[in-house]
Amino acid sequence: MTALIDRVWKRHRRAEPSWASDDVAATWQLVSLLLDYPTDDLVCRAAELASVAAALPPALGGGLTAYLSEVEATDLGVLQRDYVDTFDVTRKCALHLTYATCGDTRRRGVALVQFKQAFRASGVELDDADAELPDYLPIVLEFAALTDREAGWKLLTDHRVSIELLHRALAKRKSRWLPVVESLRATLPVLDGTDEEALARLIAAGPPSEEVGIDGALDPYVAVPQSGSADAFHPGPQSLGSTIPVGAPR
User: Fold this and answer.
1) In the predicted model, is pLDDT for residue 211 greater than 90?
2) Radius of gyration of the chain from its Cα atoms, rounded to whole angstroms
3) Range of the domain at 164
4) Counted domains in the chain
5) pTM of the predicted model, to two decimals?
6) DSSP conformation class of 14
7) Ranges of H-type helices in 84-211
């Protein structure tokens, strides 16, 4: 089943966004902010962010504007508790792109290394103090919006199944974050019948359940790059995380 999922979803990387490049980048950056843990800073910036969302095509900005209206009208403590219950407690709403397809298996360790290699190939070093894995959706979206749209597009479309599963889980919960993910989906290729078949198989099977952890050999933060690999290319590293706070306080 894994081979089928990979074959079906990775063909999307050959597609191109159907919206203007700047609109897609603005949408990705806004979604990265709005899917992160809500803070006082988000509340203070809600009106400013809403004005950016309002300037986007309705299919991209409408859901973002709707969520920002909720931010302004809802107590921050309520938002924070809802966020933790939705994304930190509910496995089906995980914001880590490799979890749905790899679960807690050795294969996920390899997938995480591939994310970090993609970032490094574009000159990006994750800040280990952020305490988030490299497949965390807000990090991937910030990278795609601000650093390398082509590499970011590949990561998003390669893991489109995870985004689709997240959307369906949020829809089932009638979550306040559903419109945010719908805005993200609007930037990605439209699904067809084959996609739906692959998705149905994954939903039926669920994430792989082999619980082996990630040992040092597979840890994306200590993996040693091989000669000639993308990880060996290190042009002027920069740090992600200065634009958005990453992850909920633990």
Assistant:
1) no
2) 17
3) 2-12+19-209
4) 1
5) 0.76
6) G
7) 99-102, 106-121, 137-146, 149-158, 160-173, 178-185, 193-205
